[in-house]
Structure formats: C-alpha cells, structure tokens
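We treat protein structure as text, and this decision shapes the records that our systems exchange. Because each token names a local backbone shape, the row as a whole describes the fold. For reference, a complete record is included directly beneath this paragraph.
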Amino acid sequence: MPLARRLLSFSTIPAISALIPFLVLPILPRAAGNEAWVAIAVGQSVGGFLALVVALGLNVQGPTLVALAPAEARADLFARGTRARILVLFPALVIGAVASWVLAPAGSGLDAALMAVAITLGGLTSSWYLIGLGTPLPLIGFELLPRAIATGLGGVAIMIGGSGLVWTYPTLLIVAIVGGVLGYARRVVPLRELMTGWRSAIRFARTQLSAAGTEAVSGAYTALAVSIVTLGASTAQAGLYVNGDKLWRMGQTVIGAQGNALQGWVVENDRAHFGDRARRALLLHAILGITGLCAFAGLGPWLTSFLFVNGIDRLTALCFGIATFCLSMSTATGRHVLIAWGKPRLVFASVVVGALVGVPTSLGLASALGAVGGSIGLAAAEASVLLAQIVMILMSRRAARTA
C-alpha cells in the first residue's frame, strides 16, 4: 500500500475513533455532575492501563509480526495472539472493576467499574492484525461503528436520566466491544479454535513479555495518569486534569495510529528500504508532534472550557503539549528504530525511566499544585522516555560502527 494511502487509512480511522467519546463527554459534567465525570475518567484510566496489559504488546510488535509472517501463517498468528490475550483478560477484568470502584468518588463506584470493564475489553482489539495486513476497512464495521452507536445511545440516556443513568454508557460499550471482537474473529478463524491450544497460547505470551512489559510500564504514567492525579489531588482539581487528559488521549490515539501505519511500512520487503523510511517516519512524527504542541498550547484552554465547562490554564495546556510532542517523537524512535533493529528491551528500559520519573512526579506535584502538577509530571515522563531512547540509538550506532 502506498505511504500516503496507508497514512490516510490508518490515521483517519483512529482519529474518528478518538472523536467518538465526544458524543458523550461534553454531556457528562453538565448532566451528571463532577463526581460522575471523574468516575468515568477513573474507569477509563484503570481500564486503559489493563487493556495494555491484556494486549500483550501486540500494539507495539503485532503489526511487524504480521507484516513479516508468511501469508499462510497469519491466521494461526491471529488465533495464538487472541488466545493468549484471553488468558490475561479475566483476571484483568476483576482487578480493574475493584480498583476503579475504590478510586471513584463516593456513590459513583459502579459507573467507574463498568467503564473499567469496557475499556479493558478493548485489549482484545484486532487492529494490530489488520494494520499488519494493510487492510484497515474492517476496523470501521467491527470496531468504529458499534462503539459510535453505543456512545451516542449512552449520551442520550445520560441527557434523559442524569447521574442515575451514567451506567448505561459503559454497559452499551461492553456489548459493542464484545460483539465487534467476536464478529471479526470469526472471519479469520472458527471461534472454537480460540478455545483450544492453550499451551501454544502460553508460549506465545512468553515471547511477548518484553513488549507487554513496555506497554504496561508506559501505561503506569500515561493510562494511569488520571488515577494517579485522583490519588493526590482534590476531586475538583482531578476534574480539571481530566479535562486536559481527554484532549491528550485524542492526540495520543492519532500519534499511535500514525506509528502503527508506519511500523509495517518501515520494515517491508525484509527491511530493504529501512534507512530511508526510518528517516521519513521520524520527520512525519516531528511534524505531528509540533502540530500537537502548538494546538495544545494555543487552543487547549479555550477548547476545554467550550467542551467541559471548566478549562485548563495556559501552563497546564503547555505541559500537555510538550508531552504530546515527546510522545510523537518517542513513538518513532522506539517503534521505527529500536524495535525495527530488534531491540525491544531498550524500549522497555526507556519506559522504565519514564515511569520512575513520571509516577512520583505526578503524584507529588498533583498533591501540591493540582491539575498543573499532574501535567508537569506527564510531560517530565514523556521527555525522559524520548531522551533515553535518543541516547540508546546513538550508543547503538556507535557500537555498530566500532564492531
């Protein structure tokens, strides 16, 4: 698939997907109150982290595995990847529901728990497989449309019933996600094949431990950011941070989509054009990151006020923008360089650095400064990851030259 078409296909679909929650998000704080707003955000935060755990690193390595696999072996790869994730899913659902209930504001535990379940189920997505194949259209029918319909109906229910019907939104999402996952899976393999071969699933999971660890540790300061800020700040300040976080998540989705679209392309034809394509990937991510930084810094306060009633201040917006730029660049340096070099452990090491910087910084500064402190912690984490990966790339190149 040509680069322009690949980028358009795989970036447009997730970008639309990132906009879908805005069918309901502006309604939540207005119709259901700040407690429900924070509860849903906590469920999304915990569920987002556990979805990364369930995904077993396939969001990072999956497209490359599919792109490099022989055509006749791809269906079996899909089946093994799905079975392995099912093994992790059920304990993750329990942990997510309980943790979200405990972290949620009083009286909103059920809403948070259901949302955590819905988002955790998203770890079973087939997007990694479709990206590797270069065929994005099934994502629309099996993931995008069902979730859009569920979100729209949930928004209507909340408008009608206020805080008493917030639970309908995550419940409808659960139905949509499960239906979409099963619907696409049966097109690739008979569903009964997903219930056998558990030993091979365990072996597959073991091979993914490095990539899964990378995603999980990264999630400690990205997906769990809202939960960390909720622990350290008041409900009002946590609500403000959530306002900025929702825009950050949209940018994160677009960056991840571009990263996914380029990942298989960079290593196509057995890495025959790797050097040139890696440089082009870095340039494209730099452009995307700078765009995100400028948009956040310039429009963030106004846009959050317009969408969510209470807007973030300029410093908070700038920190989210810096985090967006650093995330875009580390997506390129990590996925398109280090992983393409066969060095996922270096990517894991870089996100460990990010977690060690980001988690205590976010927690401590959120307690002292509220929403702005949480955003400083997020920016510090993403900047640490990028700097660590740049150092690793330079050291690897120097070692290769002297070998």
Notes: The CA atoms of residues 19 and 144 lie 11 Å apart.
